[in-house]
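User: I'm writing a tutorial on reading structure tokens. Could you give me a worked example: one chain, its sequence, then its tokens, then a sentence or two explaining what the tokens reveal?
Assistant: Sure. Here is the example chain.
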Amino acid sequence: MEDLITCKVAREDFQQWLASGNGPVTIHSGEKADVLLTILEKTPSVDYLYRTSIAKDGGISWRNSLLFCGVYDGENHALYLAKDAQAIFTRGPVPLVTEPGGSMMEDICGKVNRRVEDIVANDRSNLPVQEVTGWLAAHNLEHYQKYGAQTDAIQMLFEGRAPDGKFHSGYAMEELPEAAFLAWLQDPEGFIQTEAEMYIKSNSEKLLQQFLENDALLAEYQALVQDTGSPIHRMKAITDALNGSSAKMVNVTVKKGGEELTFKMEASPMKGHHTYYSTYHIPAADRRRFQLVFGRNTGFKAEEVVRITYGRNTIYEAPPAQEETMAESAGPAMGGMM
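And here are its predicted structure tokens:
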């Protein structure tokens, strides 16, 4: 099954039919009946609902086939409908069901993930393993520690977020297996506990890897926050300034190698993290002026930006400490956006 949606029965006659299961029932979308609904027992407490179309003459054909459309849990008086069948039950002036709820697949996965997190309790010593031994897992962990953690830390800084350092379970289903759903109906608590324990056991190194990656990310983020002189902080300040304006084109003043120049540039390419800013986004006339002053095939860095103006307003200005060292700026950057 792809998924099921919890639904609330809206009509007493439909509730009685679900409970009794006495023969097929017709459903009307207008003046004429167009769907025949029947119920078949799966277990003593669980019934499956099927539908078939009714022809214009009011009958059915031997070419008709039964299509699964839901599950009724008689013990708990709960109805679950297939996504593609909901419209049949919710249409009309007096619908059979109302208040369609959430996805059962998402609901079950959410409960399993919460149980996994409760068992692990954000403590790696509660995992069955304490070392990553698999070759691929160890390779991925090393790569993240060397490269991925820094990239994620920079992205979080630009987004104004901080790593929470907490373990988060990643249990998921691509579809809702029939056997799993029936097991959940029979014993929800037992099913959630069993799935959580099996997930931890079969993914123990993957879960430990998450703890170790969290350590690497937190260390990179804290180092980045504390290194206030990093050019990355300049880039974030520029990004924040541009995000706070409606500018599509701004005036940028750059100083490097003892030369200073103001030119127009598109605002959007200056947002975010870059090794340097490309002259490609400078209008042609100003790009030629830039190349005459700073040379061809050069760009500029965030720490070389003195100020950015939009209209008559200065929306970004380099900190004084940056301006003092501007003349000692590194050599020219190659053209192109990184």
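What the tokens reveal: The chain has a mean pLDDT of 90. The two ends are 45 Å apart (CA to CA).
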